[in-house]
Specification:
Largest sheet: 8 strands, antiparallel
Radius of gyration: 30 Å
Distance between the termini: 74 Å
Structural class: alpha+beta
Number of strands: 47
Length: 944
């Protein structure tokens, strides 16, 4: 450490409070220097000795994009562990590796854009792999653990500074930059905000990133909730970083503002502090900010506020105190402890969904057929680092059971492609070395291009036999015998060049389109057809017609292997870059047809067939026809070893589903229906029978629950029970505590997770579990009063092994507030505070704040507000309206009592006019409002 001289500027003095140091540094920065700090790539200020700074380092389940690093299971797999302690240790390992990597590569950032706390509301969301759970409490528990691990334990200096993604209500890739999620107040507060809130309040979050989409008609990058909610949850200076390109979207895609100066100013005033736009080129953002200053849309004080928040993060990361930063010398990278942790996490993430007749675990002398498209794969996703170590299911089973006891059949279709001239596509020989995509790291891997150092395909008389896989909906990959996938580089040539499908725009996928007596082979990345030219095979506007010569169907190889085995393991699932990923939602829960063929073939050849799903999301499968089913997310570098140890019984499975697995697509709401209450979505409200329920997961052991007790004391419900391992092996159990309001005044969840505990017990071991649940956990957002309310009355407490496997139950009566009618004479009715609706879309009342409602697509819609108290009587109703159309009011479902019509449209959607009509009523009634036409309603008032 060094002594600070009297000439040391205050911002360099670690003995001063950070706030005073920031004040000093802000005063030394010029206005232009401050503006330059608003872009993701903040330049150095050499005259003050301040280094350049970059916001953003992906680290969802390991340091991503910057080359090799320890790769842990996908986030949804970490969620399946239900183990905050484990996830905290994973966060610690990731942050230590980030520090170690930065010591050798300054491109590695310490402001990490992780974790993702978007709730897994809809299983067809393409980015399902990035979230932890459909439940806000489980999500916040796992996210809190991860952020604490990323932050570190030092009271002043943070190892890394985590930013939560993506604010807010973001569950669709389809039209993600222009679609609006209609989120009613109860869903907003009880569901979408809750996961963010509880994680931020836990104190290890440096900021958030707004999502691309709009909420209630307003882009998330100008969300009023950033100020009204997020910044009210903590006294920390949270740094809000825009998503890539989103600031420009405000004008270019969403057309929400007319000019970029207006949009940039609005985003900054709403709370965005760092603008991620135009890659490393900061000139356009800084020009927009200067333009906004010149136009009076921003003040220097507004700039100071945003810069202060960035500087707060930089000070906490120890940038200005290199001699005091305890994390600066961290060199832990790819350590034995990190490798062991990656395996432990992968083991804990495995979920045993079904195990009839104790098919599992497998005896040591079992002859195993391991088949399927994922059997010899260790797949990465968009937010993975490059693998230092690799373990596939096949490799794990070879290692655990011996290669002589394991037979493998991948199940690909082996094909040749013959042109109309009679020649076959052929991969020329090459001695070029293998090269894994992204192995050297890139600030923006979307800019990585394909290889051009390999020769393009040609044709000859015999051709090359390709391994063809249909990943669903006709999306194909073609792999050469040397393991390289057909890919298209920037020069348009088709080569066998890729180690795996991948990239922002995948260049390794094709589709066979029937054409005359054959097929056109369409390259999906470019939309062009494969064409044979004199200088090699390329993609072009017109393509050759190919005949597909099938050498062997995949199910034939699978059946041969299955017939010779004692047990068949079908390893099925998804490639994280195909049919369900960032930018692309899935269209179905069904397993792709190719993999269904393989499963049927294995089962027909050998009834002792287990399905092992390795996937980023749930599937709808015919579990009733299988004796055993397991699921694991893509488990990172140790996935195969971990799976083999679970299958062998070295580890008893104890992962639990972090989201509901539905029976079929018919159980799903529309992807853009964000109303989990009205749409009866997730385990909280779903009234059907799931394929596998939330929290489900079996064990090789058995557990007994007993001696449940519950008491209300000191502002909390205290619950205790005894848990005993009644099995014959050491195993983990995940005890889950749920509640249900037994006599609610409004629709409440069927059951709702309050707390959980994952514990390890030896055979015969008994432990006491204790849960302390604050009374606030039982509250709901009361739209009648615009705030939280604990409703008095009885609440069931349900304790067991899943949301449906309840072993013990009791009831407690809580003192709270009774339901009260809406005081409509005093408060009126905010349009979005409805109890029920049909055909309504919630929209922005103004560009800066407030909600209004409008009929979907300008049609007809109805709103219901229950128990409205008109007191001794009213004689007039008023409504704030914009647009054009008719508003009708009735009481208790009776005939219309008043109609207010805007016969001529208002100036725009944000120009409201107040209309009134006579109405005579008193007492308590349900108010029904019917809207017709492109009419916006903001508020209804009543007066006497």
């Amino acid at each position: 450490m060094t002594d600070h001289s009297p000439n040391t500027p205050p911002f360099r003095d670690p003995q001063l409070p950070i706030a005073k140091r920031i004040d000093d540094l802000l005063a030394r920065l010029t206005p232009d220097e401050k503006v330059s700090f608003l872009h993701q790539f903040a330049p150095a200020v050499e005259r003050l000795g301040i280094a350049a700074f970059r916001t953003g380092q992906e680290a969802l389940h390991g340091v991503a994009w910057m080359g090799p690093a320890t790769v842990f299971p996908q986030a949804v797999g970490l969620g399946a562990t239900w183990n905050p302690d484990l996830v905290r240790r994973v966060g610690e390992a990731v942050s230590r590796e980030a520090r170690a990597m930065r010591a050798h590569d300054e491109r590695v950032g310490l402001n990490v854009w992780s974790p993702t706390v978007n709730l897994l509301r809809h299983p067809l969301w393409g980015r399902n792999e990035e979230g932890y759970s459909e439940d806000p409490r489980l999500t916040s528990a796992i996210a809190t653990a991860y952020t604490h691990g990323l932050r570190g334990d030092h009271p002043t200096y943070w190892r890394t500074a985590p930013v939560l993604k993506h604010w807010l209500a973001h569950n669709n890739e389809t039209d993600r930059a222009t679609s609006s999620a209609s989120v009613r107040p109860r869903v907003l507060h009880e569901y979408d905000l809750r996961a963010f809130r509880e994680t931020v309040e836990a104190g290890a979050v440096a900021g958030v990133m707004p999502a691309y989409n709009l909420v209630n008609g307003r882009p998330n990058h100008v969300s009023p909730y950033l100020r009204a909610q997020l910044r009210a949850w903590t006294e920390e200076d949270l740094l809000v970083c825009s998503d890539a390109g989103a600031p420009s979207n405000l004008v270019d895609a969403e057309h929400y503002f007319d000019t970029h100066e207006e949009a940039t100013a609005a985003a900054l005033l709403a709370g965005v502090d760092s603008f991620t736009d135009h890659g490393t080129d900061a000139t356009r953002i800084t020009a927009r900010v200067r333009g906004a200053l010149e136009q009076g849309l921003l003040t220097e004080a507004d700039i100071d506020t945003a810069v202060r928040r960035q500087l707060s993060v930089r000070f906490r990361l120890g940038e200005f105190d290199p001699h005091y930063d305890p994390h600066r010398g961290t060199g832990e990278f790819d350590t034995p402890a990190h490798r062991a942790l990656a395996q432990e996490a992968a083991e804990q993430a495995v979920v045993l969904l079904k195990n009839d007749d104790d098919l599992l675990p497998l005896a040591p002398d079992t002859r195993i057929a391991v088949v399927g498209l994922l059997a010899d794969e260790c797949k990465l996703d968009w937010y993975s680092g490059s693998l230092l170590h690799r373990s596939t299911p096949l490799e794990g089973l070879y290692e655990r059971f011996g290669a002589e006891r394991v037979e493998f059949a991948e199940g690909v279709d082996r094909v040749r492609l013959r042109t109309s001239a009679g020649a076959f596509l052929q991969v020329p020989p090459t001695d070029a070395p293998d090269e894994a995509r992204g192995s050297t790291g890139a600030l923006d891997p979307a800019l990585l291009s394909g290889r051009t150092d390999l020769p393009p395909l040609t044709t000859d008389a015999t051709g090359t036999e390709f391994a063809l896989v249909d990943w669903g909906e006709g999306v194909l990959t073609l792999r050469a015998p040397d393991g390289r996938y057909l890919s298209v580089a920037e020069d348009g040539r088709v080569r066998a060049s890729a180690d795996q499908p991948g990239g922002w725009v995948v260049q390794e996928t094709f589709r066979l389109e029937p054409h005359h007596n054959g097929h056109l082979l369409t390259h999906l990345g470019t939309g062009r057809h494969v064409s044979v030219a004199a200088d090699g095979v390329k993609v072009a506007e017109t393509g050759d017609v190919f005949e597909v010569i099938t050498v062997e169907r995949g199910e034939a190889a699978v059946a041969r292997a299955a017939e010779r085995a004692d047990v068949v393991l079908v390893i099925a699932g998804n490639d994280p870059h195909i049919n369900g990923r960032e930018t692309e939602d899935r269209t179905t829960l069904d397993l792709p047809a190719h993999q269904q063929r393989l499963l049927r073939a294995a089962r027909a050849a050998n009834p002792r067939t287990a399905l092992v799903l390795t996937s980023a999301y749930p599937y709808a499968v015919e579990a009733s026809r299988l004796p055993a089913v397991l699921w694991t997310a893509h488990g990172g570098q140790a996935a195969g070893t971990a799976l083999a140890r679970v299958l062998a019984g070295d580890v008893s499975p104890a992962g639990r589903l972090p989201q509901t697995w539905y029976e079929s697509d018919a159980d799903l709401p529309d992807l853009l229906d964000y109303d989990v209450i009205g749409g009866r979505q997730t385990y909280l409200y779903f009234e059907g029978t799931p394929l596998f329920p939330f929290g489900h997961g079996l064990s090789y052991a058995s557990f007994a629950y007993a001696d449940l007790s519950a008491r209300v004391q000191d502002g909390a419900v205290h619950v205790a029970c005894a848990l005993t391992n009644t099995g014959d092996r050491t195993a983990d159990e995940v005890a889950q505590l749920y509640t249900r309001a037994t006599d609610p005044s409004v629709p409440r969840p069927r059951r709702e997770l309050l707390a959980h505990r994952r514990v390890t017990l030896a055979p015969g071991e008994r432990t006491e579990l204790h849960f302390e649940v604050p009374l606030s956990a039982f509250e709901f957002w009361d739209v009648a009063r615009g705030g939280w309310r604990l409703e008095q009355g009885p609440y069931d407490l349900l304790l067991g092994a899943s949301s449906e496997d309840v072993r013990l139950r009791t009831t407690v009566t809580l003192d709270g507030e009774p339901p009260a009618p809406r005081a409509v004479v005093r408060r009126g009715l905010e349009a979005a505070d409805f109890d029920e609706q049909s055909g309504i879309v919630i929209v922005d009342r103004t560009r800066t704040a407030g909600d209004a409602v409008t009929p979907a697509e300008g049609g007809t819609a109805e709103l219901v507000y229950r128990a409205c108290d008109f007191g001794e009587g009213v004689i007039e109703v008023t409504a704030q309206l914009a647009g054009e159309g008719v508003l009708e009011l009735s009481l208790d479902g009776g005939p219309p009592l008043a109609a207010l019509a805007l016969s001529a449209p208002t100036a725009d959607a944000y120009t409201y006019t107040t209309l009134d009509a006579g109405i005579v009523t008193g007492g308590v009634h349900d108010v029904h409002l019917r809207l017709r036409g492109p009419l916006r309603l903001a508020h209804v008032g009543f007066s006497g």
